[in-house]
Amino acid sequence: MGKAQDVWVAGPSGKLVGRVEPVSGLSASDRAAMWSLFQGYYAEVTPELFERDLGQKQLLIVLRDSGDQSLKGFSTIEIYRRHLEGRPFVALFSGDTIIDEAYWGQSALQRTFFRTLFLLKLERPWVPVYWFLISKGYKTYLLLARNFPVHYPRHDRPTPPRVQAILDFLAQDKFGSAYQVMQGILRFAEPHGRLKEGIAPLDADLMTLPDVRFFVQRNPGHARGEELVCLGEATFSLPFYFGGRLLLKAARHTVRRLWAFATASS
After folding, report:
1. What is the pLDDT of residues 8-35, one digit of tens each?
2. Which residues, 6+ apart, have CB-to-CB distance to 197 below 8 Å?
3. Residue range 208-236, pLDDT digits in tens
């Protein structure tokens, strides 16, 4: 009688990997993991509201631990192909997005997202492509402000009329009367979720950053779940801009490690 062989099971690596999957192919276990993760960070959310949002999306960025393949984050995606005043444009809308706090600071979501957005741009290079997002937290707004050279609204210049028209069109088309045109925010009659107390809190140091200060000024009701409507343009320079930021981040990390080593050795 043969001896049973041991089965090796990979443990968590602590590193995220991301890929784009169709919502229609999502397994029941992944849906349950997504809801469990989401409700851990957001208040005033229900499974029904979560499933309704998910059902409106076509794609999903799934973030997994590269070791045990457990689901540690996600972002839902809806793609709009529209015309405004006879001119076409494409907008990628980000819906529910969350990452397990243990994996914060990694760039798997950004890399996967930017690859998806740039592939949309390559499909029809002559058509403007935008990231359409709504932000109830400063971290989401910073993803836009720090990675899109062309983004609105912003603290250092007014929103151009054409961009504002697209913003208004998309927000009214998707959210109807919840969109407050004059303020550029979404205010829902029923709760659509808000970050729980103590998650990504604002402090005095953060408020010294112009982008964070601008976000709070433009969306003073963010703690109640109100959302700032934003748009970032995907240009052909975007991969180089984002790649340069990743290289700079890696270089700074290397310098810090070398300095720590040199200090410890002296």
Report:
1. 556 889 999 999 999 999 999 999 999 9
2. 43
3. 899 999 999 999 998 888 999 999 999 88
DSSP run (H or E) holding 83: strand 71-84
Residue 244: phi, psi to the nearest 5? -65, -40
The total number of structural domains that make up the chain: 1
Which alpha helices (DSSP H) does the chain contain, by range? 28-41, 47-55, 108-123, 138-147, 161-175, 210-218, 238-265
Residue 8 lies in a domain: no
Range of the domain at 47: 16-235
Is the entire prediction scored with pTM above 0.90?
no
Residue 104 has a CB neighbour count (10 Å cut-off) of 10
**Inside any domain, residue 254:** no
CB 76 within 8 A of CB 97: yes
Domain with 160 in it: what CATH number?
Answer: 3.40.630.30
CA dist., res. 178 & res. 176, Å (int): 6
